[in-house]
Amino acid sequence: MNAGDTPLTIAHVASAGRCYPGETMTLFTRVDANASLPGGFAVQVSVPETLSVGTARASASHGEGLPDLLVVGAARYLLWTVARPVAAGERFDYVAEAKVAPADHDLPVESTALATSKDEPAARAQETLTIQVEAQGRYVQHLPALYQTDELMGRFLMLFESFWAPIDRQISDLHYYFDPKMTPPEALGWLSAWVDLELDHRLSERQQRQLLGMAAAHYRRRGSRQGLVEILQVYTGVTPTIIEHTARNFRLGPDARLGPNIALGSSNQPHAFTVVLRLPPPAGPDPEKARREQERQIAAIIESEKPAHTVYTLRIEPAA
Question: What are the start-end ranges of the E strands in the chain?
């Protein structure tokens, strides 16, 4: 992706980085306008000789979606032109399908996408991708050497490889399913069961992943001041202030007396604390109802996290 203050940025990717003869590949190109372009722009996508050009289309923002096919010697290009003025922030997507031609040996092929501003021809954005074309499937490598040189056998096994490829990829990427940052959203509930955590579906996906990532370590700190701060940070997005109430007017001297039911100092509140949260006012048609629901949810979190013998006071103040 080209970055900086250029008028255009471009991204160019393929549906797969490795393919076999006979398979259909899809080339995806995205162009973003970072500044207004009164004269529009043009984008061209090169199609390697190993790929046979198939259908191509553009997003609705482009207008007429069919590209022109330019042939210059052995090189072929799909060309889209946006002739109207383009506003800053507009995005255009282009999709081109191509079929992989037969190949005698493995080879890498490249496709380049180039976007050029008509107002400033020198202002261009370009990106190149590489696709590895393999003449035979990987399964043939597991056969005796006699069959590895058989073209028919290699192509025959490609059928089975294409059937099993999605399962092979899933098995190869299995470790990602156990990573809270990488697992698919639909697997978050399944993963939470591994750490005996019940996810609150009112939380955003980011908060759920954050909660899952800290779950194991949090169990070691559960019931402590640090543990309560961590869990409230995830749920509310702010750092709470926790005030632990201890004896006031603590003094030692000739008048001090120790014994049963005697505490040092006055105004003692043993096993008590106050949680102070500074939150923005809730949005919605009924802010007061939303505030009560918010307070109820926070109180439920504190009840589930605090030591059973302690008492607390919750104080929610408006954010500064």
Answer: 8-14, 18-19, 24-33, 41-47, 51-58, 68-72, 75-82, 91-100, 107-117, 124-133, 241-245, 272-279, 311-318
- The string of pLDDT tens digits covering residues 112-143 is 999 999 888 777 899 999 998 887 777 887 88
Domain ranges of the chain: 8-135, 239-246+267-320
Contact 86, 42 (CB under 8 A): no
- pTM > 0.90: yes or no: no
Strands laid side by side in the 124-133 sheet: 18-19, 124-133, 107-117, 41-47, 75-82, 68-72
Which residues in the chain land under pLDDT 70?
A: 1-5, 246-268, 320
Cβ-proximal residues to 290 (8 Å cutoff; 6+ apart), any chain? 282, 283, 284
Residues 6+ apart with CB under 8 A from 81: 40, 41, 42, 68
Q: Tell me the CATH number of domain 8-135, given options 2.40.160.40, 3.40.50.2300, 2.60.40.1510, 3.30.1490.20.
A: 2.60.40.1510
Taking only the tens place, the pLDDT of each residue in 59-95 is 888 877 789 888 887 788 999 999 899 999 999 999 9
Number of H helices, E strands in the chain: 6, 13
Residues 6+ apart with CB under 8 A from 292: none
Residue 65: C-alpha distances to residues 60, 82, 83, 120 (Å):
8, 10, 13, 24
User: What is the per-residue pLDDT across 186-212, written as a single tens digit (0 to 9) for each?
Assistant: 999 999 999 888 888 888 899 999 999
